[in-house]
């Protein structure tokens, strides 16, 4: 399969059957000029939309009743003439025409109602019905007519619990209990994988190398079997549509470990898909595309064409502002790999089960990721199958389960020189009553504290934490026992980064103080306080659910404690050190081994919240503020021989200090700057 192109558009065309004149204003030259204006070199075009209508003559499906001509064929012809690729889209999970004609094909909820996933009238189709035969026939019709297609994009893929008569009968026949949600989920996965097998085979029935993507709005972490049905990934992440600007970086840092080409997918909309007349500022698209490049992705921007098929020149002028920059940067962004030294091991459980749902993020994983983003540290996200050996430090967020197999993996990692930062239950055994992997020799677990909230108090081992007073933290904590080592000198092997201070009492209806919670109680002599954060030679441990707390409360002081733990384990120096880059700035480092160079990416754009969409804040970027004199120090596997700003080509002075740390300063940049570090 050819590598993905960098400048793509996903051209939505979900069009009601009540709208006349479908495609009547399509003009090949105007279509081509729009793509040229936008500097687009690949565009996903519609065969069938969510409404269930096809936009070309069909013997299998239902053409839109008001379609004027063979729209898809004309669009493909226009693209071929100007060397623009055109993957073909078919809605898989939604087909309103089929749902109306065959209500027995619709997913049935447990209460007997039809599954309606969105606010509108869409009904989810069951892949455990003759609908799957219908869908596969549609796919085969498309690839037979266009055997030279550039790929098949199948949308709205999920594993819903289906309680239709057919599904219940098949569950019973398979020895499954429909009353058991676990059995219903097991059955739903069987149906899902049957869908994957049949639709992938249909898409590749004419040409085995046909690219195929099954889109579910996210990537199911750890579901290796499901990943095998995608030739590449397209990471749907519209920041203003509820995903936010920190969703894509975490997803991309997982997908880059999977060894497949991938796209980032944003939208030109102010909110999200289906917004006619919605426009972002060019600043937003410029930053979003730059971020895709910085995290190793190609770029895709979502648009929705008018039912008349007349292209909107304002949209393509907007896209062109972002893609002009992408085009200039492409040589430094192809065939890249991560050189991160830090990895977050996801705390998601049951990873073998399909779990793709961008609305169900894990607070602990996200909190750890946000801390690293704000500390400007490159990192990756690992699933349960991944090796830890390539990394210097792994982060185990609370919720990670230290099974015997994982404990063995952790011990081997430490024996090879690796370091671990863990929080909450992540170091405990499966019963949760003792450390499976103690932070240091002699350290034990007393149990769960009775207090919530309580307080963190920084010690001399966390000198960068600016507050020395007790700092409130919610969620409760584990009590760690250091008594065994306090009297024999072994305590010197353990640094206490933060002590715990408890309140006078927990807040109840009849026992409370002030508006929120009870203040910290003075230490009682001989009470033997339990530490909140300790660090040994190889493991740093937080007794609280630190990462979830950061995701929910956003208290920067929690990040300061995390930084102290990282510095302790890494000898005081982080893999990336910066000066002059705000915490909302981002740093990533990728390698182009074929070109003999690293590329450091610096990103910065201030976001603001302007209104809400579906109950979630709309984050926007409107003003791109230049930064000046940003200093960077990088620890890299190889020492570079030259540095320059790219694509500008301006050489940079640099120094190399002990340990091969490369120091340089970027005089000024706006939104995104790449620095090439060429090595022998």
From TrEMBL:
Superkingdom, taxonomy of origin: Bacteria
Coiled coil: none
CDD domains named among the record's database cross-references: A4_beta-galactosidase_middle_domain
SUPFAM superfamilies: (Trans)glycosidases
Annotated protein name in UniProt: Alpha-amylase
Organism for this UniProt entry: Cephaloticoccus capnophilus
Origin organism lineage: Bacteria, Pseudomonadati, Verrucomicrobiota, Opitutia, Opitutales
């Amino acid at each position: 399969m050819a590598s993905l192109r960098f400048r793509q558009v996903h051209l939505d065309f979900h069009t009601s059957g009540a709208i006349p004149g479908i495609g009547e204003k399509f003009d090949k030259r105007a279509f081509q000029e729009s793509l040229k204006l936008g500097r687009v070199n690949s565009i996903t075009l519609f065969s069938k939309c969510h409404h269930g209508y096809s936009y070309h003559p069909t013997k299998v499906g239902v053409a839109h009743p008001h379609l004027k001509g063979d729209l898809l064929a004309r669009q493909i012809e226009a693209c071929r003439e100007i060397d623009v690729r055109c993957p073909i889209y078919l809605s898989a999970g939604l087909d309103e025409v089929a749902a109306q004609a065959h209500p027995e094909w619709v997913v049935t909820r447990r209460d007997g109602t039809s599954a309606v996933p969105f606010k509108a009238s869409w009904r989810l189709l069951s892949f455990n019905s003759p609908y799957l035969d219908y869908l596969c026939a549609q796919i085969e019709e498309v690839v037979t007519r266009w055997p030279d297609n550039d790929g098949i994009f199948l949308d709205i893929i999920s594993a819903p619990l289906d309680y239709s008569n057919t599904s219940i009968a098949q569950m019973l026949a398979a020895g499954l209990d429909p009353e058991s949600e676990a059995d219903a989920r097991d059955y739903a996965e069987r149906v899902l994988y049957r869908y994957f097998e049949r639709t992938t085979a249909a898409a590749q029935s004419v040409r085995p190398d046909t690219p195929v993507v099954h889109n579910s709005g996210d990537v199911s972490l750890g579901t290796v079997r499901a990943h095998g049905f995608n030739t590449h990934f397209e990471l749907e992440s519209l920041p203003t549509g509820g995903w936010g600007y920190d969703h894509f970086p975490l997803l991309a840092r997982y997908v880059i470990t999977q060894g497949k080409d991938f796209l980032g997918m944003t939208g030109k909309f102010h909110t999200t898909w289906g917004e006619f007349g919605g426009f972002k500022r060019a600043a937003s698209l410029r930053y979003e595309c730059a971020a895709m490049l910085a995290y190793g992705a190609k770029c895709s921007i979502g648009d929705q064409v008018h039912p008349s098929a007349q292209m909107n020149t304002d949209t393509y002028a907007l896209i062109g502002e972002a893609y002009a920059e992408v085009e200039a940067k492409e040589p430094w962004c192809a065939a890249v790999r991560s050189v991160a030294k830090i990895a977050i091991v996801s705390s998601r459980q049951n990873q073998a089960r399909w779990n793709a749902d961008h609305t169900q993020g894990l607070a602990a994983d996200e909190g750890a990721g946000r801390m690293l983003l704000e500390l400007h540290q490159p990192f990756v996200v690992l699933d349960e199958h991944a090796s830890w050996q390539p990394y210097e430090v792994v982060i185990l967020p609370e919720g990670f389960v230290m099974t015997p197999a994982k404990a063995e993996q952790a011990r081997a990692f430490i024996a090879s020189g690796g370091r671990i930062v863990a929080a909450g239950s992540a170091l405990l055994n499966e019963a949760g009553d003792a450390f499976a992997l103690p932070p240091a020799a002699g350290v034990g677990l007393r149990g769960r504290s009775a207090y919530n909230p309580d307080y963190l108090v920084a010690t001399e081992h966390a000198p960068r934490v600016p507050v020395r007073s007790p700092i409130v933290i919610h969620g409760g904590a584990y009590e760690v026992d250091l008594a065994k080592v306090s009297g024999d000198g072994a305590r010197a092997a353990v640094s206490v980064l933060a002590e715990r201070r408890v309140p006078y009492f927990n807040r109840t209806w009849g026992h409370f103080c002030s508006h929120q919670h009870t203040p910290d109680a003075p230490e009682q002599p001989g009470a033997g306080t339990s530490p909140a954060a300790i660090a040994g030679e190889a493991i740093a441990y937080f007794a609280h659910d630190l990462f979830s707390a950061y995701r929910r409360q956003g208290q920067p002081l929690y990040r300061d404690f995390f930084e102290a733990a990282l510095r302790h384990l890494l000898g005081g120096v982080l893999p990336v050190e910066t000066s002059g880059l705000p915490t909302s700035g981002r740093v990533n480092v990728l390698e182009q081994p074929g070109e003999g160079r690293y590329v450091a990416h610096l990103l910065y754009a201030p976001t603001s919240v302007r209104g809400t969409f579906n109950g979630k804040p709309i984050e926007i970027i409107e003003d791109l503020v230049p930064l000046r004199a940003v200093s960077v120090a990088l620890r890299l596997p190889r020492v570079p021989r030259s540095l320059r700003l790219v694509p500008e080509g301006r050489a940079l002075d640099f120094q190399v200090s002990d340990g091969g740390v490369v120091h340089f300063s970027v005089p000024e940049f706006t939104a995104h700057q790449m620095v090439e570090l060429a090595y022998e």
